[in-house]
Amino acid sequence: MSFTMYTTPWCGYCHRLKSQLDREGITFDIVDIEQDPAAASIVESANNGNQTVPTLVYVDGTAQTNPSIAQVKAKLESLVDPVD
Fold first, then answer.
1. Who is most buried in 29, 57, 62, 83, counting CB within 10 A?
2. What is the dihedral of CA 42, 55, 51, 46, to 10 degrees?
3. Which of 38, 62, 45, 43 is nearest to 54 (CA)?
4. Which residues, in sequence order, are CB contacts of 14 under 8 Å at separation 6+?
């Protein structure tokens, strides 16, 4: 997995992005921050203390909050094809 999506069950933006990622065949882990207090802390640290979802955290430690599918794809390409 290249990233983890932090989400809540009631988040419409999360459902939309998940559907777009599934259509593109992009695999990822998903964590419900309401069920995992440690995950909520990760989201807060990426969002200035706010529990804003969806928050995606990539294998390189960077994060995106409520990104578009184009932003996710660009980030994944940068992880696969690093510029030297």
1. 57
2. 50
3. 43
4. 5, 7, 8, 53, 54
Round to whole Å and give the CA distance between 27 and 5: 10
The mean pLDDT value of the chain amounts to 94
Provide, rounded to the nearest whole percent, the portion of the chain with pLDDT above 90: 90
* CA angle (76, 56, 24) in 5-degree steps: 50
Residue 84 CA to residue 76 CA, distance in Å, equals 16
**What phi and psi, each to the nearest 5 degrees, are found at residue 59?**
-60, -25
- 6: nearest Cα among 37, 48, 40: 40
Would you state the pLDDT for residue 3?
96
